[in-house]
Amino acid sequence: MAKQVVPETARRRRRPTRGGTVLSEEIIVGTALRVLREHGSTGLTARRLGAALGADPSTLYRYFAGMDDLVRAIGDELMGRALESWKATGDWREDLRALGLAVHASYLAHPQAAVLTASRVTGRPREIAVDETILGILRAAGLPDTEAVAVYHAFIDQSLAFAALDAGSLALSDTARTGDENMWQSTYARLPASSHPHIAATAHLLSRQMPRSAYPAVLEMLLEHTAARLSRSGR
Fold first, then answer.
1. Would you say residue 20 has pLDDT above 60?
2. Domain residues of the chain, as ranges?
3. Do 147 and 139 touch, CB atoms closer than 8 A?
4. 64 three-class SS
């Protein structure tokens, strides 16, 4: 059974940690991001986080219903950071492009956290603010609600899917990631044209292109698709 989360006002009356820090949800989430960076997506435990905070692990349950609730808060933090770095221009296409890139960049700044949270729906305020912003851009551009929701669905899932994919690569050890990237030259570039004519013809391009994220290019495809929808609706 999940423990009851103590209201924020009650938390503030608690004594500081051994290091003299008065805990808050913000401090715990920030420390959790550091623990994830140091120990990976499977290394976030109440005991390890309590040690990093200088507090008893049970203290965390005054702020979060459980570790899963903390994971949702971490995802919400990444969404919030993306929105904070984004500025609206009034041009729907530019605004969607910039917001998608901001979400992608926010998650890649914390790849271990991204692996843990990109597939989650947090239901928290900052994630909700991002969703409200995306839908507002699409509806203001003139898309009917059914199409706005369809594009929103594709947009946010695409952004998070590529965040998870690219973060997974960044979360690898340097040796493993370099090995994967070198595979395009060490293996693909050596395939004979007699058996693999298409790979052989494009190997020099594949070795340059494949280590990069495809997200910017795929995002542009979605923006073109959205523009075509707007054109068909006469908006």
1. no
2. 8-65, 89-232
3. no
4. coil
* Beta carbons of 31 and 49 less than 8 angstroms apart: yes
Q: 48 with 6: CB under 8 angstroms? A: no
Structure-token pair, residue 131: 């969703």
Distance separating alpha carbons of residues 131 and 82, to the nearest angstrom:
12
Instruction: Provide the phi-psi class of 54: left if phi over 0, else alpha when psi is between -120 and 50, else beta.
Output: left
Amino acid at 230: L
How large is the average pLDDT for residues 168-176? 92
Angle at 114 between CA 145 and CA 21, to 5 degrees: 115
Tokens 């843990």, located at residue: 116
Do the domains 89-232 and 8-65 match in fold?
A: no
Of 111, 100, 116, 120, the C-alpha closest to 218 is 100
The residues near 62 (Cβ < 8 Å, ≥ 6 apart) are 5, 6, 10, 11, 14
Q: Which CATH class is domain 8-65?
A: mainly alpha
Residue type for 58, please? S
Per the listing, tokens 């070198």 go with 182
Statement: residue 13 has pLDDT above 60: no
44 and 67 Cβ atoms separated by less than 8 Å: yes
Provide CATH code, domain 89-232. Answer: 1.10.357.10
Q: Cα(first)–Cα(last) distance of the chain, in Å?
A: 52
Task: Judge whether residue 171 has pLDDT over 80.
Answer: yes
For residue 138, give the nearest of 100, 183, 105 by alpha carbon: 100
pTM value? 0.86
Segment 197-220, tens digit of pLDDT: 999 999 999 999 999 999 999 999
